Amino acid sequence: MAKKSKSEERMERMQHHILVCRGPSCSQASSEEVLIAMRKHVKNENLDETVRITVTDCMLRCSQSPTVVVYPDGVWYQKMTPESAEKIIKEHLLREEIVVEKAQYCLVDGKFVPCKVRKGISK
Ligand code: FES
Question: Which keywords accompany this UniProt record (predicted)?
């Protein structure tokens, strides 16, 4: 059997992929601070091996910036702050509870729908 590369092993360990928008509107709304907070709390919670954070360009939700999306759950978070970044790491990633006050859209049955009532994450 072929030996797995480090990249393949990392992919197998990954449980969440967080997209942080750094497009013009989100940058103006301090998404850099959100990104720094995300990275800090991922490290503090020892999630480096299971969480990947990727910076993106505009995700077309500028009026709700800064925007963050968490996969595989497909939850779009709006008007992010460093404090809500910490909540996402501690509540969404660790306890599998959507941060309801910041959640805008959730992926349900293959479609993104307004996400006002769901708290837990169905798998
Ligand atoms: S710049 Fe972030 S959603 Fe448009």
Answer: Iron, Iron-sulfur, Metal-binding
